[in-house]
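Hi, here's the filled form for the chain we discussed.

Project: internal
Contact: R.S.
Residues: 238
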Amino acid sequence: MKNIFIFTHIPKTAGTSFINSILYNNFDKINLYKYQGFKNLLLKDKKKIDVFMGHFPYGGHHFFPGSPKYFTFLREPIQRAISHYYWVKQTKSNNYEHPEWKFYDSTPLVDLFSKTKKSSFYFFPLKDNLQTRYLAGLRHGFWLTNKDQMLDVAKKNLEKYQLLGIQEYYQDSINLFETYFGWSFAPTQREKSTSSKPVSFDKSVVQVLEENHSLDQEIYKMGVEIFNDKLSRKPCLN
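And the returned structure, exactly as it came back:
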């Protein structure tokens, strides 16, 4: 019985760049399965999957046999939220319009969090403390409202991750994945970058962002500490 890899792809943390430059370069695309809804996940032939990836919170191991190895990327919470919001706002062209574009375009950033706090099986929309929610999992991150419990579960789950990268230290992160898993890196053109976000914000906007990401700040700090520890030791896990 093989043990697959699970990539928890938190939006706007360099996950797409990682997928293109690492995962597509080390696995056959046919064996890489991107989350496309619960129905497809339940019906998918699990024996043919090497990597399960996508905007899906911690808990994917319940759908697979064996002991899957988790990995993810984190990003400084305020910058991640800003990038998330303005990336959706810029995804409108003659060929494509993001499903959330109209809502984001008509909703100021400071009002968005109060409108997206409700539970949902759709994990992409910008919510408060989104990185904590992803790591806490479906039950504790998207159904419960107890923030202390959410943070506690998220921290415990983060300790179970085989490896994590930090968006602000992307190249060092890539080096870690190469060392730990023996994967090779193939440079690719950066995709899904946010090009239209403001350089600075009013204090009132910053305050709202900080209030809605207090848990993410703790998770990010913990993640950086784990990352630095891995970076200093660099043991090979193969």
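Let me know if anything looks off before we file it.
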